[in-house]
Amino acid sequence: MKRTFLAVLASLAFLAEIMAEPVFLLPGEILAPGHGEIHLSYSNGEFLKRHDGSSSASDVAAGELRRHTALPLRLRYALPGGEEVVARSSYMDLMHRVPSFGNYSRTGVGDVLLLVRSQANLWGDLRGALGMGVNIPTGRGVFDVSANEAPTGDGTWDGAASFAWADKRDGVTFHAEVTYFLRFPRTATKAMDQALTEEVRFGFAHRFQWGMSAELKASDALSLFGEMFGRVHLSQSGTYATNGADASAEINAKAFPEFYAQPQDSIWLAPMVQIQASPSLKFAGGAAWPLRLTNGYSGLMYLANASFKF
């Protein structure tokens, strides 16, 4: 048991070094054909600016604040052939206060992620899942919002691919998942409701979300587990349509770098407690600490979730 936990800690430390929002897409138990699961989560956090020179936007005026409340919903259903359909979205209440610009807020639905994936027992207690899908821009991105609105999505169609695995060793259950998003090209004539000099074209861009957890059952009804999750959002280049010149300076000035054009990464660590209320119903709660956040935001995020199998 001790060696197993040491191996987990070493793996988490390694990933924190090579990788730069909650994922809530871990594979869970394989569903029997014709059965499904509803997973509702809640997260609430408030994040203040910290001037540590960690990014190009580290000189934003003191007093910058982000506050968010989100209700991510995930639905899973197993088809007769064993494939699994996964749908995920969030309802969000967001506020971003920038002293030199004002307050930006919005309440609404985020993007919808649809995946079809195949899960299988590989050997022993090890099982894997491989999926493909699409991110639908039902949320509003930086090029779609009105004045003083905060973006709730990317505003673009993205292709998605997901790989996950789960294993049980010495009474501890491990889960891990990586989801890759390919953002397709698009054009824009405004950003954060401010007109751009001319039409800007954006090429392909890449984003990764990842998460992992270790669960230890203290009893039939109680589990203790820790999660680590994060996101790597690589920059997307933009060029003016007429001459192909780099438009990054204007995008950064009008859309805020951390909203779109700037590389972003985040790593969170979350200890949680889970209660098995019945064979089909689970509840969990805890808090997440940011180990790394682009632009030096610091704050605590509170988490809770419930899952129901049918």
Q: What does this entry look like structurally?
A:
- With 310 residues, this protein is mainly beta.
- The protein has one domain (2-309): Beta Barrel (Porin).
- Helix content is 8%, strand content 57%.
- It contains two helices and 16 strands.
- The chain has helices at 2-18, 248-255, and strands spanning 36-48, 65-78, 83-98, 102-109, 112-123, 126-136, 158-169, 172-183, 186-191, 194-202, 205-217, 222-233, 238-240, 264-278, 281-293, 301-309.
- It has a twelve-stranded antiparallel beta barrel with strand order 1-2-3-5-6-7-8-11-12-14-15-16. A three-stranded antiparallel beta sheet has the order 9-10-13, covered by helices on one side.
- Strand 15 and strand 16 (301-309) form a beta hairpin.
- Mean pLDDT is 77; it is low at 1-27 and 51-61.
Short description:
The protein has 310 residues and is mainly beta. It has 2 helices and 16 strands.
CATH class: Mainly Beta
The overall pLDDT, averaged over residues, is 77
Which residues sit in consecutive blocks of at least 5 with pLDDT less than 50? 1-27, 51-61
Structural class by SSE content: mainly beta
- Count of extended strands: 16
Instruction: Tell me the overall shape.
Output: globular
SSE arrangement, N to C: HEEEEEEEEEEEEEHEEE
> What is the CATH T-level topology?
Porin
CATH homologous superfamily descriptor: monomeric porin ompg
Percent range for β-strand residues:
over 45%
Distance between the termini: 33 Å
Q: How helix-rich are the residues, as a percent range?
A: under 10%
Q: Can you count the helices?
A: 2
